[in-house]
């Protein structure tokens, strides 16, 4: 559409503004509100992350001296800051303290919580491998193997294969244990004497008691 005079253009603009001005203003308000709201939200998230990091550092600093205070800090992080990375790290530390008290049931619960709430795949895998060790030590090798079926991030594959070897050995499945240890040795570059010892122990003759 063309307009013959400036007056016609002005009148057309007035009509358009009368018909659409409210929507434009509303859109601007919503848009600006969204920007402000997003900034407030990100500021809130960053503030909570800083708070969580301070609580976690306080927890770590006292963990060796006062396990009760460490427990309180860890519980605060898990219950009050579950979406921060520090909550899963706190759960890992609480699991370690539980193992020191031989409370494997509590340790398992903490590690499963860490697996479910970890913000990083590496943190979840640390929890998974530690839990697998607990399950094997508790005689639950099949549960450990099931847990280890989840693909591991790079850098953890060798540890997973070693744990598979431990689980298979406990189940008496020596061929599978040997294969798992072989994979672990290969991934480690063959530099782990401990892995070689585990592998070689599978070939040791069974000692039969005379009694």
Structure description:
The chain contains 9 helices and no strands. The chain has 211 residues and is mainly α. The chain has helices at residues 6-62, 67-80, 85-100, 104-117, 121-137, 141-147, 157-170, 174-188, 193-201. The longest helix is centred in the N-terminal third of the chain and has 57 residues, at 6-62. The N and C termini lie far apart (109 Å). Helix 5 packs parallel to helix 7 and helix 8 packs antiparallel against helix 9. Helices cover 77% and strands 0% of the residues.
Distance between the termini: 109 Å
Specify the helix fraction band.
over 70%
Shape: extended
Q: How much of the residues is beta strand, in percent?
A: under 5%
Number of discrete helical segments: 9
Largest sheet: none
Task: Please trace the helix and strand order, writing H or E for each element.
Answer: HHHHHHHHH
Strand tally: 0
Radius of gyration equals: 30 Å
Secondary-structure-based class equals mainly alpha
* Average of pLDDT: 81
User: Low-confidence parts, pLDDT < 50 over ≥5 residues?
Assistant: 205-211
What would you say about this model in short?
By secondary structure, this protein is mainly alpha-helical.
Please tag this protein with its features.
211 residues; mainly alpha; 77% helix; 0% strand; extended; disordered C terminus; membrane; cell membrane
Per-chain topology:
Elements: H1 6-62, H2 67-80, H3 85-100, H4 104-117, H5 121-137, H6 141-147, H7 157-170, H8 174-188, H9 193-201
């Amino acid at each position: 559409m063309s307009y013959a005079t400036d007056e016609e253009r002005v009148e057309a603009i007035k009509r358009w503004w009368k018909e659409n001005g409210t929507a434009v203003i509303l859109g601007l308000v919503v848009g600006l509100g969204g920007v402000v709201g997003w900034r407030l939200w990100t500021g809130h998230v960053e503030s909570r992350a800083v708070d969580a990091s301070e609580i976690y550092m306080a927890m770590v600093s006292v963990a060796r001296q006062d396990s009760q205070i460490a427990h309180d800090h860890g519980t605060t992080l898990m219950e009050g800051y579950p979406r921060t990375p520090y909550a899963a790290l706190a759960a890992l530390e609480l699991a370690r303290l539980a193992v020191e008290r031989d409370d494997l049931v509590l340790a398992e619960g903490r590690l499963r919580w860490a697996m479910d709430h970890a913000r990083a795949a590496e943190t979840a895998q640390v929890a998974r491998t530690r839990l697998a060790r607990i399950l094997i030590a508790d005689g639950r090798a099949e549960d450990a193997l099931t847990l280890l079926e989840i693909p591991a991030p790079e850098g953890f594959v060798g540890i997973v294969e070693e744990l598979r070897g431990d689980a298979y050995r406990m189940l008496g499945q020596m061929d599978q244990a040997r294969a798992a240890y072989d994979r672990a040795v290969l991934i480690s570059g063959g530099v782990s004497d401990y892995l070689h010892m585990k592998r070689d122990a599978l070939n040791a003759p069974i000692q039969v008691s005379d009694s």
